[in-house]
Amino acid sequence: MSKISLQSIEKSFGETPVLKQVSLDIEEGEFVTLVGPSGCGKSTLLRILSGLEQADAGRVSIGGMNVTDVRPAERNLAMVFQSYALYPHLSVADNMMTPLRMRDLPMWGRLPMIGPLLARDTYRVMQGQVREVAETLKITPLLDRKPGQLSGGQRQRVALGRAMVRQPVAFLMDEPLSNLDAALRVHMRAELSELHRRLKTTFVYVTHDQAEALTMSDRMAVMMHGNILQVGPPDEIYANPNCLEVARFIGSPAINTFAAEIQSDGHLALIGTTLSLVQPLTRAPVTVGIRPEHLFLSPTGRFQGHVRYRENLGSDVFLHLDVEGAQQPVVLRANPAQAAQVTLRNRVCFDLEPDKVLLFQSTGERLPCALATREVA
Amino acid sequence: MQQSRAHLWFIGPALALMVVILLIPIAIAAGLSLTDYSLGNSGAEFVGLENYEKIFTRSTYEKMFGATFRYVFVVVPLTVGLGLGAAMMIHSLGRIGDIYKTIYFLPVMAALIAMAIVWEFAFHPTIGVVNATLERGCGTILENWAWYAKGCERTFPLWLNDRDYAIWTVSFIGIWQGFGFNMVLYLAGLTSIPPSLYDAAEMDGAQSGWDRFRLVTWPMLGPTTVFVITISFIRTFQVFDMVEAFYPQGGGPSKSVYVMMFAIYEKGIQQNLMGIGAAITVVFLAFVMILTLIQRWFVERRTHYV
Questions:
Q1: In this structure, what DSSP letter does residue A371 have?
Q2: CATH of the domain at B187
Q3: Most exposed among A45, A91, B221, B267, judged by the fewest C-beta atoms under 10 Å?
Q4: What are the distances in angstroms from CA B19 to CA B9, B23, B25, B286?
């Protein structure tokens, strides 16, 4: 019912185009993440959806209603800001009550001092709602404090609470976790997912952190240079990126890329080794992408490299290898037992999982072609 | 155990300066206010609280308090209000705002004593531009206003030399001169309000400008307002140069513009009655002190959000 749809949104600041014909449909109750590097226009898109920014062209509709020219206050959306944007002079309870007060009370009920007396019943209902939400977010003991007396994580919860008190059509979140420390951020990721499951409301979440996008969203939209490059479930985007930029942006450590060539016989020449393709392609330069976890150490491996650096994460070890013919170090994921046998600057052999190799045209588009799992000599 | 005396060297110079240039003069003034000292006399009689008694009983000083408080309580609210209004309007403008900013700030930069001469001409009963303009309105619908009709019939008031108008005219010039300063302070305050708060207010349903003002602007300007009000009080209590320029001989028609600073100057310097001059100074300091304490109290209680 309250499906959100953005159609051919265009926006430029002065001469600089920020959004170029962006379209996105968001189903009711979905957790959609807009992810992309800074300056890609994701926050602008969210602000256009909220109404805080006007699009130059295009249409925004919520629940089938065209709201392109409707004020933010009347779109019934709630937003959580990166800076939290809590009113510093109001207590936590008053902060959370503000959206209710602004919507549910007539002018005279909002008067200071006498307002609460005149509209006593409404106030009681609103206080009940605030307490209920505070209960859910476990911030009841903070209700009488001012935002200045709270920690970053607590402020984050209050901002969330302020968005939750009136049941909005959707929650818009603009990098809400980026001001928190790493541990809290991971914790809040789980909590936000949990909250989404419980509320069953639409979440539109903007982040530059691909890990947040991968962990929380039902679907994610990867944005770059004012365009949405790919929309889909996190698994699909990770395993099946439709272009090189998406493949590079999603995943940490980043995907390994190699310049390679499809030879005239239809085979792929990759750093000194020839690999066969499922179906031969015409001769062209291509880019080969392969994720660190799809490379493995093997004594009989077809590739060789010198260990340059060991990045130990405890559960996994990422080996950075200098490989002749590759411009950048190749990153390979190894399990700690294997990695223990590897010493720095030594030569190791490794191989790849052929079915996981991604091929891209020189323009960056994905080639719908895979490597043959078995080499035909 | 040997204790280091380094701390004395750190605070010593500042402390010594403060005592010499601030505390001792105030103490001397307080001391003098209890005597009948005149400049040049070798000694002075101790007269106790006689000077203070005069201040609080004689009609001259009653007029002094009347003029000072009238001036202060007209000028302070209006300069603060106009300063805030002008700042908000300029803030909402783009580049044109800079021009207005300069124009409104001009009177603050100009020497008030020179501006006073200009105003004196403007308010002159026969050659002044103010009354000349008012006379043009005679015979029009404005005459339905009784005060205006009376002005046309006889003459319009002698703005600066009529006992009933003088203090208000001087207040008007004080406002004209002072609000640009408050405007600049408020502009600084407005720029420091995070824009995301207005976004949050909009999302929370604050639709009218008044809602946004009540929810964000006014509370966020709280610290600025406290400062602006305090500084305005102090500046208006100190008004002197304009009175001296308009009325070098004794504080205006029937002493209706006999403000405190002018009284100090007249008694202490012109008439060489140092004792009474010092006593007025001490009373003046007490007022400023009370205002400062009120400000401190407000800063601690109301506008200290963090």
A1: B
A2: 1.10.3720.10
A3: A91
A4: 16, 5, 9, 19
Domains of chain A: 4-244 (3.40.50.300), 254-367 (no CATH)
Measured in residues, chain A has a length of 377
- Domains: count for chain B: 1
B207 at interface of A, judged by CB pairs closer than 8 A: yes
Domain assignment of residue B60, given as a range: 51-123+159-301
Residue in chain A lying closest to B202 (CA): A73
Which one of B204, B211, B224 makes the best mutation probe of the A interface by having the most chain A beta carbons within 10 Å? Answer: B204
Asked whether residue B36 is assigned to any structural domain, the reply reads no
Chosen for mutation from A81, A130, A167, A175 (greatest number of chain B CBs closer than 10 Å) is A81
ipTM value of the model?
0.84
**Does the model's pTM come out above 0.90?**
no
Nearest to B123 by CA among B255, B232, B242: B242
The arrangement of strands across the sheet holding A366-367 comes to: A273-275, A268-270, A256-262, A284-290, A358-361, A366-367
Contact B202 A89 (CB under 8 A): no
Within-domain flag for B9: no
The Cα A26–Cα B272 span in angstroms is 85
**Tens-digit pLDDT string for chain A (377 aa):** 578 999 999 999 988 999 999 999 999 999 999 999 988 999 999 999 999 999 999 999 998 889 998 888 888 899 999 888 999 989 999 999 999 888 887 777 777 777 777 778 888 888 898 998 898 888 899 999 999 889 888 998 899 999 988 888 899 999 988 888 888 888 889 989 998 998 899 999 999 999 999 999 999 999 999 999 999 999 999 999 999 999 999 988 999 998 888 887 778 888 878 887 777 677 788 889 999 999 999 888 888 899 999 999 889 999 999 988 888 899 999 998 888 888 888 899 998 888 888 889 888 888 887 777 765 44
Question: Residue A375 is encoded by which pair of tokens?
Answer: 């080499």
In a domain, residue B193? The reply is yes
CA distance B104 to chain A (A): 31
**Nearest residue to B84 (alpha-carbon basis) of B220, B255, B204:** B220
Q: Using CB atoms and an 8 Å cut-off, which of residues 213-272 of chain B contact chain A?
A: 214-216, 219-220, 222
What's the gap in Å between the CA of A15 and the closest CA on chain B? 18
- Judge whether B49 and B35 are in contact, CB under 8 Å: no
Cβ density class A160-170: b for 16+ within 10 Å, e for less = bbbbbbbebbb
Q: Domain for residue B2, yes or no? A: no
Contact A89 B220 (CB under 8 A): yes
Q: Give the residue from A50, A74, A86, A98 with the most B CB atoms within 10 Å of its CB, the best one to mutate.
A: A98
